[in-house]
Specification:
The complex is a heterodimer of chains A (about 325) and B (about 900).
Chain A: E1 2-6, H1 11-22, E2 26-31, E3 41-44, H2 50-57, E4 62-65, H3 76-96, E5 101-105, E6 117-120, H4 132-147, E7 154-160, E8 163-164, H5 171-180, E9 186-187, E10 193-194, E11 197-198, H6 199-211, H7 213-216, E12 220-223, E13 229-230, H8 231-242, E14 250-251, H9 253-269, H10 280-287, E15 290-292, H11 295-301, H12 309-319
Parallel strand pairs in A: 1-2, 1-4, 2-3, 4-5, 5-7, 6-15, 7-12, 8-11, 9-14
Antiparallel strand pairs in A: 10-13
Helix pairs in contact in A: 1-6, 2-3, 3-4, 5-8, 8-12, 9-10
Chain B: E1 20-26, E2 33-40, H1 42-48, E3 54-59, H2 70-81, E4 87-92, H3 109-123, E5 129-133, H4 136-147, E6 152-157, H5 172-178, H6 182-189, H7 192-198, H8 207-214, H9 224-231, H10 242-254, E7 259-263, H11 272-281, E8 286-289, H12 297-300, H13 303-315, H14 342-346, E9 353-357, E10 366-369, H15 370-386, E11 394-398, H16 403-415, E12 418-421, H17 427-438, E13 442-445, H18 447-455, E14 461-464, H19 470-476, E15 478-481, H20 482-489, E16 503-508, E17 518-522, H21 523-537, E18 545-547, H22 550-559, E19 563-565, H23 578-588, E20 592-595, H24 597-605, H25 612-618, E21 623-626, H26 633-642, E22 647-649, E23 652-654, E24 657-662, H27 665-671, E25 679-684, E26 689-694, E27 713-718, E28 725-726, H28 730-737, E29 747-756, E30 762-767, E31 772-774, E32 777-779, H29 782-789, E33 794-802, E34 809-816, E35 824-825, H30 828-837, E36 842-848, H31 863-874
Parallel strand pairs in B: 3-4, 3-5, 5-6, 6-7, 7-8, 9-19, 11-12, 11-13, 12-16, 13-14, 14-15, 18-19, 18-20, 20-21, 21-22, 34-36
Antiparallel strand pairs in B: 1-2, 2-4, 9-10, 16-17, 17-28, 23-24, 24-25, 25-30, 26-27, 27-29, 29-30, 31-32, 33-34, 35-36
Helix pairs in contact in B: 2-13, 3-4, 4-10, 6-9, 15-16, 15-20, 23-25, 24-26
The chains are: A alpha/beta (about 325), B alpha/beta (about 900).
GO molecular function (chain A): aldehyde dehydrogenase (NAD+) activity
Organism (chain A): Microcella alkaliphila
Pfam family, one (chain A): Epimerase
Amino acid sequence: MIVAVTGASGYLGGAVAAALVADGHEVRTLQRRPSGVDGATDFLGSVTDAALVREAFTGAEGVIHLAAKVSLAGDPAEFDRVNVDGTRVVLDAAESAGVSRFVHISSPSVAHAGSALAGVGAEPASPQDARGEYARTKAQSELLALARDSDAMAVVAIRPHLVWGPGDPQLVARIVDRARRGRLPLLDGGRALIDTTYIDNAASGIVAALRRADVAHGRAFVLTNGEPRPVGELLAGICTASGVRPPAWSLPAGIARAVGSLIERVWAVRPGTDEPPMTRFLAEQLSTAHWFDQRATREALDWAPTVTLDEGLRRLAAHR
Amino acid sequence: MSALTTPLPAGLPDIDPSWSRVVRVADSATGDAHDWHLLDTAGALDRLGVSPVGTILAVHGNPTWSYLWRRIVGASVEAAATGAPAWRVIAVDQLNMGFSARTGAPRTLQQRVSDLGDLTDELGLAGPVVTLGHDWGGVVALGWAVDHPELLAGITSLNTAVHHPEGVPIPAPLRLATARGVLATSTVTTPAFLEATLALARPALAPEVKDAYRAPYRSAADRSGIGAFVADIPVDDGDASFGELRRIAAGVSMLTVPALLLWGPDDPIFGDRYLDDLVDRLPHADVHRFEGAGHLIAEDRPYADAVLTWLADRVAPGAAAPLATRDAHPPIDDAPYAPLWSALDRRREDDADAIIDMAARGGRTRHVSWRRLDDRVRRIAAGLASGGVRRGQRVSVLVPPGPTLTAVIYACLRIGAVVVVADAGLGVRGLSRAVRGAWPDVVIGEVKGLAAAKTLGWPGVRISTATLPWASRRALGVSHSLAKIAARGTGASLPAEPSPDDLAAILYTSGSTGPAKGVRYTHRQLSAVRDVLAAHFAITEETGLVTGFAPFALLGPALGTRSATPDMDVSAPRTLTARAVAAAVRAADARMVFLSPAAILNVVATAGELTDDDRDALAEVATFLSTGAPVGEPLLAATAALMPNAEPHTPYGMTECLLVTDITLDGIRASATAPDRGVCVGVPIGSNRVLISALDSGGRPVGPPASEPGVLGEVVISARHLKSSYDRLWLTDRAAADNTPDDGGRWHRTGDVGHLDAQGRLWIDGRLPHVLTTADGPVAPVGPEQELERSGRVRRAAVVGVGPEGLRQAVAVVETVPAVSRPGLAPADLAAELRALSSLSLVAVLTVPELPTDIRHNSKIDRRRLSMWADATLAGGRMGRP
């Protein structure tokens, strides 16, 4: 089928587009910079450019919408413009182009506000409870997307949790960078159980959502490897595989949250190009459990991860 | 009957206003009419279109009201809606109480009983009726029951009392409340009595529930009934209501309808003393003591489900005959029966050694012949009988193992007294809970045990094993010494022997899996323990035993063969040395040795001290038994090396059934090559039967018990020597026999999880509450733990679950070699090694200095506690010690 992918210059978007090409689909990619995906046709520009989006979607059967502003800090208006307005433009264009399968990529943070999560499912998105601009605007856009689910267009929302892998410029690069600079603490000894998603599994799960949209439509699913690990063990594994020393210093989580929230405020006043070293959100992410019930996801998507955490770390090390 | 508007305020929690009604009733004595408020489900059942099979008539106590019964009112309607037999519930507010009329004058107990009769007459209540009462309402309900035999189908009660023994002070809280002056202030002028009662709930009541209880008692005038009720409590025959109470108590003793008593033992007023009195009056009653519940048991525990379940079992059409209910199962056993003391009878003229006690204080060896043992047992038995100890009375024995304990136990059994045995390993609190739960009539103990009895206020007449000076006797409340009892019994005749199906003993469980439970054995079942042991191990008069594990010292005389207890501190098995075992083997010319796992450790550790003579003696041993907790192959093999001609056995059993299966060292070695997980405990002994009730995906043992190999489930057993029931734990009894084969045998759910293999061997995989309900199905911990213990860096491992039920994630918690000093995440290399060894996907590996372990067996890991600790730790919470 013809599938349009937004945000394919991103790490996950590129992997999804490549997976679709490999499956024999005709793939169109829409983003500001070239996607670099062999075999896909690039449409360069912003998702807020309605004309461009319509052009890219013409004749498409499926859309996978990944384009978003992903950051821990930044101007709230910019988050709204890209994540909320952009999603509306993409949905409108998909409807008018007669797209029948629409996969909206969301985030587990749309439904949770920082408390420990142990084995929960995909609760409804809640913009008013979300922490930070990213989570708030992603919650709004997920609600927008699911509201468009109809007989003509099946909409599924997928919330991958902490995607990582070789060449990952987000999680892995940041962890390695912080660890190298000694800025990555293990909060409370790094014992909180965190579930993550290896890049290939995230891509195959999203492709599965496109395939199963007729069954799974109208719902949101958290997507992970289903292998929770203590966060300290994960960070150490990623650091070791990447050839840097794992973090050794430990900070009580309460102090880290307080410091993080202070730094966040200072950064808001004096925004720089760099991201703050520790935000309240990050402190919570690193010190409380985040793992999910994958039973509904696997059943609805008729999918299971193919790369284990340990295999992923091996691939990460081999990539170096 | 008139339709009056309900006085019930709106919005009370758990109350459907449509249950509330007011009925005007004329007092049969005076003709005065009073308005009664009641909760009545007749209308609700009518709307459901069902007709009731009977009525539950519920009477609250003081200072509550019919709100107390809201759960059974609600639950009975719900049950009827789902098609279960419909019971109408009428829960009254007694006059001057709740939302019923204030009559302007106090009402005596006699009036209250007659008031209730007037109400049921007015309602035209037809049978069958089952009464339900609480507190002083229990007395009123029982009074109604005694007066309405033609309507009565059963009686049920929560904490109450119909008799107070003379010479025993009434409970302190009531002494205070009934004292002149205090009475009016505490009960009427202020709501102190009401508030104190509401504060008895465990856990505490929700504020809105407390408020609902207060609703009819807002003003002093509204509370006048509370004060009058307390003032009417009959303390002695000077009180107006004493005669009525005595009449009711006598009437209750005559009742033969099914009876259920649900009890909260932590009640400062209606304590276990009153339960014991009710059990004496209603020996056929089903009794359940909810450990940890108190006076407001209706708030503390799911009494409503218990009552409805019991009604279905015992009262509803098709239920079991009322008087066949004393024990969970009627005994069906046609094997020949010989009482436990029959060998004593047989060898009473024999001067050979029966007991060789090398553990006696001072290091000297004490020899007791069969003749002397039999004589001592007879004298103590006759002395106890002539001192008034009757068949069926309970005797708590707080005597350390040794010839005196043996003599006392056989004497009690001989006269039909029920021996209550709780292990000191329970700790003082556990022991105290056990003794109070059994409510013995007599306590026989050493000074230490008697001092505990005195300090902790245990019941019972006290008999000291030693002859004490007058001052100590008085201080300990001791009425007799054992020597005096025996002297009194010299030459006296013995009472008739108890019958085989009389209760013989109550043995307490270890309490490592919840509060210790009393396990009841009849004489027939105790004798069966002896018979199965003798048959399985071919024990004859000539065998000779060395009993390094105290419980088996008691069985020597029953087996008719001499037994030697080696030189050791019998309460500390790890003091036993290899030389002491050898000396005992020599002294008793023994062919069979019993040791506990803790003793084995030290025996192996001290093997280097053995002389050639010692080794020669040990070479004569033909059978060696490790009993208690399972021991591993290496330890068993090391012990076997000391007794080269002995076949080592390690049987599997529990307090409820001491010998279920047995395996030899060779059997353990053979099982090592099997692909099965868990600990192989061998095949059933003798005619025992072992089946498996398969677990469902939620870890519940719902499968019909079957012998199919490879199926993980709860181990379900049947044996001649299986216990008869649990003591005063009707619901536990019912659960233990639930969904077991209906083949006339007695069956028991063990709470152990395991599987059978194709050769019929039983493998134990863990305890039911320790099963992890993962997304891939239930996982029992023992097998996965064994995988981890293959690592040389792991001393002991526990596998527990974190996260929600049905989605539990497996976590390994290990003791390491060398030990860590504080808990934490395992280092990466250890975590990787253990993950590689494990067949489970371990989300985390935690190391701890020591796993929480039960003291008594020094082997049972408290996995429930560990799981809660791991859950909090891995959620990112603060890390304490497990």
